[in-house]
Amino acid sequence: MKMRTTTSLISAASAITLALGLAACGSSGPADPAADSDSPTMWALTGSSENIFRSSVEDWNKANADDKINQEFFANDAYKTKVRTAVGAGEGPTFIYGWGGGVLKSYVDAGHVGDLDQFLADNPEVKERYIPSVLENGVIDGKTYALPNNNMQPVVLYYNKQVFEDMGVEPPETWDDLMALVPEFNDAGIAPFALAGQSKWPNLMWLSYLVDRIGGPEVFQAILDGEEDAWSDPAVIEALAKIQELVDAGGFINGFSSIAADAGADSALLYTDKAAMMLHGGWVYQNLKNDAPEFVESGEVGFVPFPEVEGGAGDPANVVGNPANMWSVSSTASEQQKESALNYLKDGLFSEEYTQAMIDSGAVPAVNGIEDQLAASEDKDFVEFVYGLAQDAPSFQLSWDQALSPAQGDAMLANLDQIFIGEITPEEFAENMNATLGK
């Protein structure tokens, strides 16, 4: 079987080492002597869009001396903990990076973020910039509290084309196809799926897709609505049972519960031919371009929709993931900070250069009128695939850990981790989660 070159492996190791260092703390560029306490602060994530965010702010600061932004980056898992604590204490950044959904609602209910309706009314071109279905994720109770800041990120099934070619198999179109591939790859000494179980949230991609394929988006909507015993829906129980069947069949890399997503170790398993497939978000393609350019440039990374579950009520065209990440503006920021933040949202975010840089990175910005730019991209196959998934999906469901309230989301990830390691049954999961409804 063809292996990646030594150079590529060294690059992968370097990327993982860097990511591990970033996971421990925030990172930022050299301090800007002109930026002071009156400047807005911006916290964002390391990884796929980091260079775009960083370059955008650096260019903005050079051109806008009165509206300079202090920027800092954090690894995903560390950020989620840090920002909730800081915002709750009234010490959050001016620009709050988020996903919309239940977490945003919790900020709105507590008065931590300001509504952007007047800003959008005064600047209608900003609202018209965005794909409406994506912009909707920043709307709570009829008011807009967040604007998309990057790309549409449906969860897709990545696969290693070289491994599949060497094995003489095709990517799965149905759940039965997927299960049939598991023993074939295991017999060849290749893990069927990479999974960063230590981070817990990657586990969720399996549950949300299976529930949708089996029962349709109405199942999770009942959970969001707090309907009694909604977690006991047969689609949830069946999805959890299928996950445990996949685990028991050896579907995931050995030791998956000790692998962290922030370090990029799950992706490295895919491009070093140690795992055949990986279920992950659209942002992973950008990471692969950075960490394993040869893997991408050679056309060895494949991508397909999540398989259909035979007999399921869900439309196979439905997707789950993140319509986009969002910027909210802190209500506790000073008036000067708020004014500077709004100026950036109007004239800096999704400028022509920003949008093109995102497309060049292998991402699909959540904005209108980019079809020609996508068609001209060197990553045409992937970006048009993602754009088509998002545009054609009857349902684009936000990641559950963000759609739910923070308390429910945390409980769900903890209980789902117990499902993956076989510590609880699907029925016990449902019972535990039913107790969180309404919290």
Automatic annotation (TrEMBL):
InterPro entries: Bact_solute-bd_prot1, SBP. It comes from the Bacteria. PROSITE patterns: PROKAR_LIPOPROTEIN (PS51257). Keywords: Signal. Transmembrane segments: none annotated. Coiled coil: none annotated. The keyword DNA damage does not apply. Residues 1-23 form the signal peptide. This is Sugar ABC transporter substrate-binding protein. It comes from Arthrobacter agilis.
